[in-house]
Amino acid sequence: MPIRRKTDHLTLAAGLVAKRRASRLSQRSVAAIAGVTQASLSRIERGISDPSLSTVLETAHALGLELRLVPRELVPAVDLLLRSPKGGTAEPQDEEPLYAPEREDELS
Q1: Between the N and C ends of the chain, which has fewer C-beta atoms within 10 Å?
Q2: Is this structure's pTM higher than 0.85?
């Protein structure tokens, strides 16, 4: 039997809500694009339903998102790449971004 983690489910729901709100879209408009009802999207966003994979994919696509499987050991690196900039700067002052080229000639 698969192990289900409520925190993963709620994290996914919170991500969908955050993207929808940041995009200034209503539940009704996202639901229409995703092919689900507004009530169904509301339950997904509140974490009280267990949607099918196809519903999650369609909802993500409606929001301009892609779902990817990431090996657990790489999750911290992905989180660093996706984190919101703080203080109005793109990267923390003391850290080199993970995706930056090491030398100027690597840009071409």
Answers
A1: N
A2: no
